[in-house]
């Protein structure tokens, strides 16, 4: 669609002189905001939390507003700092040290955030897991990371196969402790008994902070490892892109099990000391409008799937809420449809700013800055300090308007530093000095980037990244399934849905009940968002002569597209 560009915002917005800033900007310039200038050492938990708790102007400011259907809570910077100190003392008591992996598998709650900062304060590496994960997803991540401690709840502990996790030394339960003879530690009891003073473990910028597991097109999920140094970019983008000001009330809708929920649900807002709304529970338009209204949210970061759902519920609904506090909107995770931007202008009288980045990149890279005009359908331009290009498969830059691999010159502050336990996988991201994203895109003559799709088979369903291999592996564990091939199928609201093609074992015949059983099998074994919404039974699944499933061919069949080169197809 060819739409008119939307003029830039005036007023307080940052980076009016985009080109000029790009030329003179150095990442080192951001350093002056941080304590390590004096000490040489650092800790994200200090910069994002304790610094504000020590400052008489901010210590009693509300840091966190937690809102869920059954519970509401507010914590000041001082309260959150003390509770995280207590939790750091609990970890210390149980022998946790710098570099150990401590995982969180629980819904969003004030305890989650206190525990998260406690983990950072002791210098350990936090691994947040999405609460919808089922046993296999949990097992894969805890085994690969060799996590020593898991913080979870009574409701979720059944999905943790403790006997298969030899490295897991302690399980800490938040809320009611199950009476199943397990060797559990009661979060509340321990925290209540711990001192609220803790000597922060100061670390180096390159020390580990966070492990986020994410999916590729092959193999199990991989552990993307981030270090404290990422704060430089979280801070800078908090200013330039989130446009955070002291009095803002900020809400990022993402769960901390995904990278948006940590980089922009924890780090960026709290590095800037703003009040952060954390909303638990499920999505409904009324619920979200209500949250925006009740807390007078001024800056909102959400996802295209959510926005498309709001669009489908109409402007009428929105009009019954007072959303006048809202002044800045952003989106991430999937392509943002131009229609949604148009709707946003009419409904909120605000521009929606698309932002592009990935789990691996740790922070925003290509964005629609407040000070730039928006070209609907474009992800925007690289932030200062970031060089982006379209490259061919050898890492050579391509001219404007030519499609290719979206790539970033390696070495930005928030870039992942490892794929956990998998150095060769890490290496495989880089060609000729470029980090190659796996997305295809082009750049226009004016430097705007336009997303075109994934170059691999990774599926993006409602903004969540799903690896087809994981789903296929789970499917063939079902006794009825012989082979499986899984693709993303375009869907108007969810971006893509997961479609599985399967062949059945001899004894089985296709019935709606069987297909539903198979779907539920994936849902309860892996996770709800990875369960195929459509399953189609085939006589055979196309494979290469070396036995690789030809997902591309399945997709072409599904979409009625030309099948292209099938010379490697088995017979
Ligand atoms: O394909 C791109 C898509 O999401 C992928 C990254 O997914 P994940 O690591 O889960 O991180 C999501 C949030 C940081 C990318 O390779 N993606 C992300 N943002 C956009 C996008 N696609 C189009 N437009 C975006 N703004």
TrEMBL record:
<dbReference type="GO" id="GO:0006085">
    <property type="term" value="P:acetyl-CoA biosynthetic process"/>
</dbReference>
<dbReference type="InterPro" id="IPR042099">
    <property type="entry name" value="ANL_N_sf"/>
</dbReference>
<dbReference type="Pfam" id="PF13193">
    <property type="entry name" value="AMP-binding_C"/>
</dbReference>
<keyword id="KW-0067">ATP-binding</keyword>
<dbReference type="GO" id="GO:0003987">
    <property type="term" value="F:acetate-CoA ligase activity"/>
</dbReference>
<feature type="domain" description="AMP-binding enzyme C-terminal">
    <location>
        <begin position="470"/>
        <end position="548"/>
    </location>
</feature>
<keyword id="KW-0007">Acetylation</keyword>
<dbReference type="InterPro" id="IPR000873">
    <property type="entry name" value="AMP-dep_synth/lig_dom"/>
</dbReference>
<dbReference type="InterPro" id="IPR020845">
    <property type="entry name" value="AMP-binding_CS"/>
</dbReference>
<dbReference type="Pfam" id="PF00501">
    <property type="entry name" value="AMP-binding"/>
</dbReference>
<protein>
    <recommendedName>
        <fullName>acetate--CoA ligase</fullName>
        <ecNumber>6.2.1.1</ecNumber>
    </recommendedName>
</protein>
<dbReference type="GO" id="GO:0005829">
    <property type="term" value="C:cytosol"/>
</dbReference>
<keyword id="KW-0436">Ligase</keyword>
<keyword id="KW-0547">Nucleotide-binding</keyword>
<dbReference type="InterPro" id="IPR025110">
    <property type="entry name" value="AMP-bd_C"/>
</dbReference>
<dbReference type="InterPro" id="IPR045851">
    <property type="entry name" value="AMP-bd_C_sf"/>
</dbReference>
<feature type="domain" description="AMP-dependent synthetase/ligase">
    <location>
        <begin position="56"/>
        <end position="417"/>
    </location>
</feature>
<dbReference type="GO" id="GO:0005524">
    <property type="term" value="F:ATP binding"/>
</dbReference>
